[in-house]
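A quick aside before the break. I want you to see a complete sequence-to-structure record at least once, exactly as it would be stored in a machine-readable document. Don't worry about memorizing anything.
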Amino acid sequence: MSTVAEQLSTTTLLRFATAGSVDDGKSTLVGRLLHDSKSVLTDQLEAVEHASRNRGQEAPDLALLTDGLRAEREQGITIDVAYRYFATARRRFILADTPGHVQYTRNMVTGASTAELAVVLVDARNGVVEQTRRHAAVAALLRVPHVVLAVNKMDLVGYAEPVFAKIAEEFTAYAGELGVPEITAIPISALAGDNVVEPSAHMDWYGGPTVLEHLETVPVAHDLTACHARFPVQYVIRPQSAEHPDYRGYAGQIAAGAFRVGERVTVLPSGRTSTIEGIDALGESVDIAWAPQSVTLRLADDIDVSRGDLIAPSADAPAPTQDVTATVCHVADRPLSVGQRVLLKHTTRTVKAIVKEIPSRLTLDDLSQHPAPGQLVANDIGRVVVRTAEPLALDSYADSRRTGSFLLIDPADGTTLAAGMAGESFAGAGATADAVADEAGWDF
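That is the input. The structure line, written in tokens, reads:
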């Protein structure tokens, strides 16, 4: 047992999301991954085998491992992302199983927002369809660094290489235009198990990795020390006890990069500067700490620092701004309109804001921009200009998914309205939007 624990403690973690059109075989692929990687409990497998026999099927229908939640979605009981956890000897996984219907685009955004890899399924008989392009566009918007194109149901097209090659070429060209940095195409049959966990005996023309092999070996950028160092302050520790009469520390989780004792830092949005005098991690003093460690920073100068402030190296500090131009995915059932008062939550800071402009709404089918829609409704993705009551130290989402993202919240009841990504929509995009004149109400 200790050997297993030691093994898991040294393996890396990969977060990935699956996406595909209805009936592309996504449930079967997830079931096959869990089954063939020995991640299914015995009683779960027995239940699936029993249900399959009742349906007159000789082999267990692995889609039944996930169909319970899918049936709930179809009945309207819950429409959400299903998270599944499994592990192999080489890596641990968190799988976000997202709905395939177009009206659940917001759910794919939720599942892929923290993913380092997205598996996009395509039915080999249908090729790249509109929903495939939508999934590629969402992955590009969210800056998911790795995308796997899983061309499924190859058994139904005779395992023909030209069919796979055509689909892979079309998808790679489209996703490449969107700025997806890495695309890996894999021909599979989730039903038969071809190239999911075990290599296929029917496609000797394919020499690449299986789906699981790729998931186990794809580089995971957990070492964020090369990124812009950012430390959102969650809590100020001031015990004022006999043991620690003068202790003042700023606790939080390092969002990106690394901090070192002696480093010159700037506290934002105030702009005050100081030097890191000490770093406390797990009750011990350390010389360096990096993302995603939770630590307490101690500064040499007694300056005003509170929850919501951001500490960054002085040589690499973002410029605070009150004008935020971003792409948002609207997740609430109520619309988001121009002139609407909202709260903007960025890392540990929440400020009042107003929606000054909605320059365009993105049509994911062909990536065209519908100008000045006036409002965004559920599942819409669009550009917004927001004016905040107080300055925010935002990064571009392209530079940092953690400090470049934010939420728009309804101040009346705390409902999340939209998930935002500061900066340009797609890699290499050049669209900009100018803020309109201040309106009555929350006039900043």
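Two observations worth writing down. The mean pLDDT is 84. The first strand starts at residue 12 and ends at 20. We'll return to this after the break.
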